[in-house]
Write a structure and sequence with these properties.
4 domains, 39% helix, Alpha-Beta Plaits, single chain, alpha+beta
Length: 474
């Protein structure tokens, strides 16, 4: 530090402020006072005019003291009277992030999408408006269109701002067709990471494709239509190889034929979203049919050992053989139609494209029970079939508990079962879930809906039977 540095600068660095000229004057005054005192003492002790000199010395000391007091007040160590902006270290530490957070108040996360003109400065104007409202932009994605650009934001806004206030501000800055909804911490994951995670889930399990599409595209309805109807045998669904995009509806060619229809009301799909969805479906088609091969060996209350595992179309023959061993009453309660048509549904039910299937297998390898979790648009259906000889042993409850755990894991809000009032086994199994149930009669059949917001976490075995796990559990 140079001697020319100002007092304020040195005070900010915590060093005392000194003036060498003031110190020299004070030192000279001190030596003068000592010399005068010495001369006075000699004169008082050896001269005849001692008393007079002693009086003069007192006057000199008083004058010197007065001069020193005047000099100190004029050039003292007091800090400057003007506020230079410097503050003590302790004060700076106290005025830290805690005060800033308290001043900022509570915040909320929002997902917002708006369309702006494809012109220079439009995005800057929108961002400036959000900044003036103290809205922090956490992430931004752009979706180019033919006549504009769709900007998708994840923002953190003051809790006092509602969606209407934000929408009006965006419209004032040139945004149109604005859509906004509350977000949560899961939305903080960036888009590439989320897409890679969805691709990984799809690669491990073909049944994950509809769920992955729903998480990729937000709130939407997904329907898978087979190429040939299982009931009539006539063509049911078809789509161009490259797919088709029509405003709020996209149609994609399913890997096994047929069509996957994705519909999102009020929010048109962008070409970017269409390309992402098509890439996910193409990945699924290249990987081919696949399901996790883990299985659980369970001991039923009566001591019988069974194996519960995932099933797919490779179990078609075993499922048909189980149909042959089932009574007409059991098949009628399950399929609600002519018994002879039961086999037609199996290819559709066992396909991972339309949901997940669990099979119950005896030690000899015979399939004696099937449980289905079916993606039905934005709803989810559960269905059970247990061979007559193996009924009332807890198999239906075990399958249903596992299917509900899968539905909770997939983020479903509810599941429903279509049965008959006389099917006491299915009604008892639904009641055994311990979930809120709604009952409706539709066209002579009983529809039981279970709301899953109070369902337990899917990590533990659903019903607490003793079991020995073999391989990876789904």
């Amino acid at each position: 530090m140079t001697p020319e540095m100002s007092d304020v600068t040195r005070a900010r660095h915590g060093r005392p402020v000194h003036h060498w000229r003031r110190d020299l004057v004070e030192l000279a005054a001190l030596f003068t006072a000592v010399a005068v005192a010495d001369v006075t003492a000699n004169l008082v002790g050896h001269g005849p005019d001692g008393p007079a000199l002693l009086g003069l010395s007192a006057v000199a000391l008083v004058a010197t003291s007065g001069f020193h007091t005047w000099w100190t007040r004029r050039h003292g160590h007091a800090p400057p009277t003007s506020d230079t902006g410097a503050r003590p270290l302790a004060e700076e530490q106290q005025a830290g992030p805690a005060e800033d957070d308290a001043a900022a108040g509570a915040t909320a996360l929002w997902r917002m999408r708006t369309t702006v003109k494809d012109e220079l400065g439009t995005l800057a104007a929108l961002c400036t408006t959000l900044a003036r409202m103290r809205i922090d932009i956490l992430s931004l994605q752009t979706h180019p269109l033919a006549d504009g650009t769709v900007d998708e934001f994840l923002v953190r806004a003051p809790a006092a701002l509602d969606s209407g206030a934000i929408t009006r501000a965006v419209a004032h800055s040139g945004g149109s067709e604005t859509w906004i909804e509350r977000a949560d911490a899961h939305d903080l994951v960036d888009a590439p990471t989320r897409v890679l995670g969805l691709a990984t889930r799809t690669a491990l399990d073909a049944a994950e494709l509809p769920l992955a599409l729903r998480q990729l595209l937000g709130r939407c309805t997904i329907r898978s239509l087979p190429a040939v109807s299982p009931c009539s045998g006539r063509p049911e669904g078809d789509a161009p190889v490259e797919g088709a995009l029509e405003d709020t509806v996209m149609r994609l060619r399913a890997p096994e034929g047929g069509v996957i229809t994705v519909e999102r009301p009020y929010l048109p799909f962008t070409p970017t979203e269409f390309a992402r969805a098509r890439a996910l479906v193409e990945l699924d088609a290249r990987l081919g049919p696949r399901i996790p091969r883990g299985q659980d060996v369970l001991t039923l209350p009566k001591g019988t050992a069974i194996t519960v595992r995932r099933a797919d179309t490779s179990d078609l023959d075993a499922a048909k053989e189980m149909h042959e061993r089932c009574s007409a009453r059991t098949l009628g309660m399950r399929y609600h139609g002519p018994v002879g048509d039961a086999d037609r549904y199996l290819t559709h039910l066992l396909s991972p494209r339309f949901g997940r299937t669990l099979a119950v297998q005896t030690p000899s390898g015979r399939v004696v029970g099937l449980g289905h979790l079916l993606w039905d648009g934005d709803e989810t259906e559960v269905a059970l079939l247990v061979e007559d000889e193996w009924q009332r042993r807890g198999i239906g409850g075990e399958l249903l508990g596992r299917l509900v755990a899968m539905a909770v894991e997939a983020g479903c809000e509810s599941v429903y079962a279509v049965t008959q009032a006389s099917n006491t086994g299915m009604v008892a199994a639904m009641r055994g879930l311990g979930l809120p149930l709604d009952y409706q009669i539709e066209e002579g059949t009983l529809v039981i809906t279970a709301r899953l917001h109070t369902a337990p976490a899917p990590a533990a075995p659903p019903h607490g039977h003793a079991y020995e796990q073999q391989g990876a559990r789904d």
